[in-house]
Every structure is written in C-alpha cells, then in structure tokens.
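Support request, please re-run this one:
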Amino acid sequence: MPIAQNPLSVEVTLPREDVALLKVEGYLDVDTATEFQHHLANQLHHGRRHFLLDLSEVPFMDSSGMNIILRVYQEARDLPGSVHIISPPPAVRRVLDLTGVSITVPVSQSVDEALSRVDAHPEGPQVPGA
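Re-run finished. Output below.
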C-alpha cells in the first residue's frame, strides 16, 4: 500500500472542557480532508462547542479543507459554539480571503486571541438579524 505523499498530522488538545484546539500540519486537500473531518467529528461527539484550528503549519489547502471548515462552522453555530482559524500562512490566508471564508470564520494570530474571542461570545458569534 503506498504511503501518502503529503501526510496530515492533527494534534488535539483541550485548553478548556468545551474548547478543542486542533493543530494541523501538512497539506489539507482532497487526500487528507477526511482525516481532518474525523478529528472534528470526534470532538463534536465529545461535546466540544468551540474549535480553534491552528493552520500555521498547513502550506496548502484546497476546497476540500475549506468545505470541512465551513461544515464544522455550521454545526458549531447550531450548538451554539464557534470556529476560529489561527495563523494561516500567506498562501492559505489568500485562499480564505478570496473565497470569503475569512469573513465568515474569524481568523486570529494566536491561540490566546482566539480564546479571547470565545470569551467575548461564549454562545457563539452574534449573527445580524438573528
């Protein structure tokens, strides 16, 4: 069985009981998106409501990765909860900006900044008109 060219590594830590920090390393693409989705689904299953996605070590992300981020954003919002992207490299940030994902999902420069945003809105983001 061939080994993936660009394996994905996801390290999950729990800064708080309802907050999952997922540090993602590697390409987040069609070949690795399912693994990323499994980690997120597992955290949802265990009652996490807030997701901090550290993408600082993701050199490339395609639409598969973006779709999973948007899907978990929808699920977290319904809990209510939140999703925060942390430190995306320039290439990934550009994709997030061009597709409008960075307008919907907050982008922070650090874990502390993202946790501050969670503290500011513990019941999830305020949706205009909701």
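The first helix runs from residue 33 to 45. The chain is about 40% helix and 25% strand.
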